[in-house]
């Protein structure tokens, strides 16, 4: 299936609504397509997206879901989430208007087979609870790792620290893709906890915090 071609009318609706809202942080189309191909190929049954935006990536993921699968997408912005709800009418998709960090803290361990982290929480904060929510043999995908126009000042060191921390964690395998908006695909190999020395590492400590820096 060519998702880009099949979903072209809905993509246009989301892009038009995003423009009207002034929302400019939609997921890269190629990244959304890549997520959908992974979910379809893996047969992921429990999918979590952190950062609904106006629903562009959900549009693709919903097409890729198996009949008995379920997708939860979380965003704190009710107006953006409402755009997604207007375009995506799918019983297997659950839209949550909530703080993604608080949502992750309430998750049970091993709750999801596939997590797409497209928000600050679960990527540059709350990383530990995001990885705890991922089941063994599940995939965790991060986007926007190449420089973006809307990056806050001094963001590059955060990206480098995130990738270094993931590489240093036993029990995870990482592949970085210098493509599209910049992706990292992380496989959870087993259920061992994150080592205390990584949590305490001065360069990585912010990844496990529950707060956002003042420049965001």
CATH level-four homologous superfamily name? Vaccinia Virus protein VP39
Overall number of domains: 1
The third-level CATH topology is: Rossmann fold
Mean pLDDT: 96
C-alpha-based Rg, rounded = 16 Å
Extract low-pLDDT stretches: none
Give me the count of strands: 7
Strand order of the largest sheet: 3-2-1-4-5-7-6
Helical content stands at: 25-40%
Question: What gap, in angstroms, lies between the N and C termini?
Answer: 38 Å
Helix-strand sequence:
HHHEHEHEHEHEHEEH
Please give the CATH class.
Answer: Alpha Beta
CATH architecture: 3-Layer(aba) Sandwich
Per DSSP, the total helix count is: 9
- The geometry reads as globular
| Estimated structural class | alpha/beta
Strand content: 15-25%
The major beta sheet can be summarized as: 7 strands, mixed
Provide key terms for this protein.
7-stranded mixed sheet, 216 residues, alpha/beta, 38% helix, Rossmann fold, 9 helices, 7 strands, globular
């Amino acid at each position: 299936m060519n998702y880009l071609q099949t979903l072209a009318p809905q993509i246009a609706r989301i892009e038009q609504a995003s423009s009207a809202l002034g929302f400019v942080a939609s997921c890269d189309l190629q990244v959304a397509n890549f997520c959908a191909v992974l979910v379809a190929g893996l047969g992921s049954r429990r999918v979590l997206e952190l950062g609904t935006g106006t629903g562009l990536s959900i549009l693709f993921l919903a097409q890729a879901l198996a009949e008995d699968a379920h997708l939860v997408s979380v965003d704190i912005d009710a107006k953006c989430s409402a755009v997604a709800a207007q375009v995506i009418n799918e019983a297997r998709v659950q839209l949550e208007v909530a703080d993604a960090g608080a949502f992750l803290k309430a998750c049970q361990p091993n709750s999801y087979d596939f997590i797409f982290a497209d928000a600050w929480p679960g990527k540059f904060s709350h990383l530990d609870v995001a990885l705890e929510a991922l089941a063994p043999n599940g995939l965790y995908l991060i986007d926007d790792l190449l420089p973006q126009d809307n990056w806050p000042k001094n963001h590059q060191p955060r990206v480098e620290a995130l990738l270094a921390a993931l590489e240093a964690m036993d029990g995870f395998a990482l592949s970085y893709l210098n493509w599209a908006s910049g992706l990292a695909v992380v496989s959870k190999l087993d259920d061992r906890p994150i080592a205390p020395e990584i949590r305490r590492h001065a360069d990585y400590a912010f990844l496990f915090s529950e707060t956002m820096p003042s420049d965001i």
